[in-house]
Amino acid sequence: MINVKRLSDEFFRLASISSPSFHEGEIADYLTQRFRELGGDVEMDDAASAIGGEAGNLIIRFAGQHSTAAPVLLSSHMDTVSPAEGVQPVLENGVFRSAGETILGADDKSGIAEIIEAICVLKEQDLPHPPLEVVITVCEEVGLLGAKHLDVSKLMARHGLVLDTSGVGSVAHMAPCANKLRFLIEGVESHAGLDPEHGISAIQVAAKAISIMKLGRIDEQTTANIGIIQGGQATNIVPRHVQLLGEARSFDEQALQRQTEHMIDCLKQAADASVVEIHGEPTQAQLTTEIMADYPLMDVPVDAPVLQRLCAAAERLKRPLTVGRSGGGSDANLFNQYGIQTVNLASGMQKVHSVNEFVLVDDLEQVARLVVTFIQDMAEA
Ligand SMILES: [Zn+2]
User: Rounded to whole angstroms, what are the CA distances from 336 to 101, 181, 219, 294, 325?
Assistant: First the structure.
C-alpha cells in the first residue's frame, strides 16, 4: 500500500531543507506547495508575527471522502533543533543519517513525511476518510511556541494524532505539565578582603537554598532541576547577583504546584537566614521569583476512542503499540488543552537532538501504513 520510494524521497527532500526554529520560511513554502499539489486547502496562521519567526503554522484541510465522520487532526512540527545549517541527509542500507556535523531533522520531518505519504495513499486508492486537518507547527523545539500561538478557532477536529515521539511501536497518552523557573537572588556587594562583614553573598544564599531543595526525581510523578546558575563578578567581591534557572514537571498538576512552592520556600529560608547588620540596619538578601507555565498536562484516558482506534489499527497490522507516558511536553499537550483529544505516536526517529540522529526507511513505512489504516477506520462514523 505504501510507496516506499515516494516516502523515502519525500523525507530526503524535507530533511534537505534547513529549518531550525524561527527559520522555517523555506520549508513552509515547500510544504505549502506540496500540500496544494495533494489537493489540500493550505493556510498559514499569524503565529509568525507573535513569535518573531519567518513562518506561521500551516493549517491544511482535506475534505472527507465516502465518510460522514468527524474531522481528524494530524500534526507534526516543521522546525528542528540546531546544528541544522546545510543538512545533508544520506541514505545507506535503509537508514537515513546526516552526512556532516548537523542533526538529521527526522524530529520531526519523519512525521511530516508519514502524513504526506498517508494522504498520497488515501488519494490514489480513493480510500474512505474523514475530513483531515493537518497542522504543521513552527518553533516547537523552543517551547512549543507555534502551538501556543496557534489559531485554534480555525480547527474543527476534536481528536487526532501528533507524530512526534522517538522510537517506533509506541504511543504516548500522558505527558507531564511543567513550569519554567527563574530565581534572582540579590545580596549585598562588598570588598571580600577589606569589608566582608558588610556583604551578603548571593552565591552562598543560592548554595544554601539548593542544598535543602528536593531535586531530581521527587516521586513517580514529579521531577525537578536547577539547570543553570550564573553570578558573581570577581574573586575579591562578595557577589551581589545570582540567577538560577530551573524547571519542575509532573503528571499531577497539584504535585507540580507543591514542588514549585517548595523550591521557592527553600530560597526564602536561605534569604531569611542571610541577615547581617549593615550601617545599623538588619539587611538580608532579596528574592525575585518568576514561574512560567511551560506546558499543560496531557492525560488522554486509555479508553478514548482515538487511542482505541489507533491501537486496533496497529493490532490489525500485527504491529501492536505500547501505550505509555512521555517524559516531556509536545504540541499534543496543547492540543489537549484546546479540547482536541490527541495522542502522540512514535514516528520512528531515533537519537534525536544529536548529530547521531537517524531513522529507518522501514520504520517510516510502518508508521505511514499505520496512519493510513487508522484514518480509514476513523472514516466509520
Ligand atoms: Zn519533535
Answer: 36, 23, 25, 15, 15
CA–centroid distance, 299 to ligand 1, in Å, is 19
How far, in Å, from the CA of 353 to the mean position of ligand 1? 9
Asked if 347 contacts 164 with a C-beta cutoff of 8 angstroms, the reply is yes
3-class SS string, 20-34: ECCCCHHHHHHHHHH
For the domain covering 177-295, report its CATH number.
3.30.70.360
Rounded to whole angstroms, how far apart are CA atoms 114 and 136? 12
Compute the distance from residue 77 Cα to the ligand 1 centre, in Å: 7
* Percent of residues, the chain, with pLDDT higher than 90: 98
Instruction: Give the helix/strand (H/E) hosting 323.
Output: strand 322-325
* pLDDT confidence bin for 279, thresholds 50/70/90: confident
Active site residues: 79, 140
- Picking from 318, 327, 361, 326, the residue whose alpha carbon sits closest to that of residue 343 is 326
In the chain, where the domains are located: 4-175+297-378, 177-295
Give the CATH H-level superfamily of domain 4-175+297-378. Answer: Zn peptidases (3.40.630.10)
**What cell was used for 367?**
508508521
What are the percentages of helix, strand and coil residues in the chain, rounded to 5? 35, 30, 35
Residues flanking ion ligand 1, Cβ below 5 Å: 107-108, 164
What are residue 130's phi and psi, to 5 degrees?
Answer: -75, 170
- pLDDT reading at 90 higher than 90: yes
115 CA distance to ligand 1 middle (Å): 15
